[in-house]
Amino acid sequence: MNQPDIAVEEESNDLPPPTAVGEAQESTRAAGQDGQNEHAQIEGKKRTSKFVLANFPTSLILAYQSFGVVYGDLSTSPLYVYRSIFIGKLQNHQNPEAIFGAFSLIFWTLTLIPLLKYVIVLLSADDNGEGGTFALYSLLCRHGKFSLLPNQQAADEELSAYKYGPRGQSSSSVSLKRFLEKHKKLRTALLLVVLLGAGMVIGDGVVTPAMSVLSSVSGLEAAHKGLPQGGVRSLSCIILVGLFALQHCGTHKVGFLFAPVVILWLLSIFSIGLYNTIRWNPKILLALSPHYIIKFFGETGRDGWISLGGVLLAITGTEAMFADLGHFSACSIRIAFLFLVYPCLVVQYMGQAAFLSKNIQEIPNSFYGSIPDSVFWPVFVIATLASIVGSQAIISATFSIIKQCHALGCFPRVKVVHTSKQIHGQIYIPEINWILMILTLAVALGFKDTTAIGNAYGLAVMSVMFITTFLMALVMVIVWQRRNTTFDLHNKVPLKWILGLGPSLGIVRVPGIGLIYSELATGVPAIFSHFVTNLPAFHKVLVFVCVKSVPVPYVSPEERFLIGRICPRPYRMYRCIVRYGYKDLQGDDGNFENQLIQSIAEFIQMEAVEPQFLSPDSVSYDGRMAVISSRSFQSGSSLVVSETEEFGLSNSIQSSKSLTLQSLRSAYDDENPQMRRRHVRFQIPQSPGMDPSVRDELLELIEAKEAGVAYIMGHSYIKARRSSSFLKKLVIDFGYSFLRKNCRGPAVALHIPHISLIEVGMIYHV
Q1: Which of 57, 428, 69 lies closest to 257, judged by CA?
Q2: In 3D, which of 398, 423, 234, 220 has the Cα closest to residue 327?
Q3: pTM of the predicted model, to two decimals?
Q4: What confidence tens digit (pLDDT) does each residue in 624-663 have?
Q5: Core-most of 84, 555, 664, 690, by most CB within 10 Å?
Q6: Under a CB-based contact definition with an 8 Å cutoff, are residues 367 and 77 in contact?
Q7: Is the dihedral of CA 418, 419, 424, 426 positive or negative?
């Protein structure tokens, strides 16, 4: 039977039990270690305080940049909150007492959720500096066996990023962890909660841009009563189209330009709020007491509870503080919120309430009605720009959440563009961008004004959340439990069958390297037997490649490759597992083949000298793997590397001995005349102490690389069995087929060169 992939490190536990003296020595040593640990903790705190002081200027710069990305949505809420609360069920309760109660509700909502929950508590629950729903989920999965992701291995726990967070656990937490680990339904429910949160963020990304832009442009109606009925919506749609058209520039450029706009906006609403408080009704300060909340519900009754949807609009965009944590730092986000965002919002809501308490008739135009005439137009321009910033914040968060969903296998493959070389997490997804634009325009045109959008906010979010969650659940069920993955897991090719074929595999082994892509991290996929029985020849060197995601935000390049062997040495069959975090981007750097060859060469040499690979347990020929660091390539590789730059065809095609591939060279060169590539050649160093068998294997590896590299993938077709239910046939034969045909294929997502790709079709009946 195949053994699971484990780390190579082993320890001997065959030690005699300690004597009484030994126990005393152990307790003394433990006491000494506790003292050392306490001293180390004190010194660590001193170093941490010095580090914080030294990096305080950096935190200030990051706090400045966070205004253009994080706080745009939250800071533009005063445009529409009071109007959404009082237009509707509370039309019969438009009086000063209700306005005081509404302000008290807004104040305590801002205090309890953004300030207490997010700034004080949640920003400390990061995952290696990353925030968001999936960061919390991955953190939970690493501290307990909650993950439902396939291909999880014990070797993944050796990643440096895996050990983030406190290791100690209380008895109650251990009991809860074991309870969740025993019940798969609870772990499934936990994943569904994560997906529900992702769906809410996506739904917010549809409604918020329309809400913010329409609210800001609605000031034209207050200034020009004779404006055509559709004028505001037409102008809003033009602004929205321009906003989504700019997304390909990246959040770095857009956010850097937007930060001054948000700061100017916050200072403007703070000044206006302070002016209105002093001029109209300073007694509004009394509404800071929660006593006015009780009076509010006592007067409004059931209608007051329904109006809470409008109150919640005051905290839209709060999730961006945690979701965008990886772009900044917890300290910078706290500084920006505590010293500018929170006081400005509180004073603005207070000033609006003071104005409305003396001008009840201005509730339909609460924000623009409270602006003094002398500064109306400057504030209108700033409000329009700030609403665009607010939309930008939630659009960026939507891109990030969909990227993380895709890393978990819960979303179809889409094109992800990395828009910044300096900031790793800033991405752009074209398909999602245009879908969001269409849905946002539909919301802006489908509702008459912001009041209708505000009343439908909960329904819209719930609807989009349901649809998104349904699609995610569909893909999760199909991809994780009904795609070829489960089939391969239960139908692995027996190793005895491969050993019975001999080193030639019963076919002709031709020069070259065949990279067989599979979703399995252990064993040989069932499609391999399909290759062997249907192809007349196969490559002399075969590498089973598995690209998988692990529950950490990033995997360092030094820990990305796991290399192992399948079957004895004469078979020349290897396994390579490429690991990515849920926020890593699988870039096309054109160096994968060379890194793979160097990693295999390092493994071959390591295998010859490391005793653990020569132990009797290694007779299984599958399961033992080693982490091959890219640093070893620079420090001293078992191969000598020479590089030259040239224009034209890729290395694998240039060196190929296939006449068919060489015939395509001229046409490919004509289409890509200025494509510059590195041509890397490998040589075996002159080392008299090298084992002859190792030298022969390295020589065959180099010759195979020079002969050419082919990428082999299975093109899977999933069909429901004839005996399946109607619902199952509908989901698989129509739903899954639609997603497969209209989403990016695995070859495109993995940046596999099309000219070197070989696809073999297989039909799976489930």
Answers
A1: 69
A2: 423
A3: 0.66
A4: 677 776 555 555 556 766 666 555 444 444 444 455 545 5
A5: 84
A6: no
A7: negative
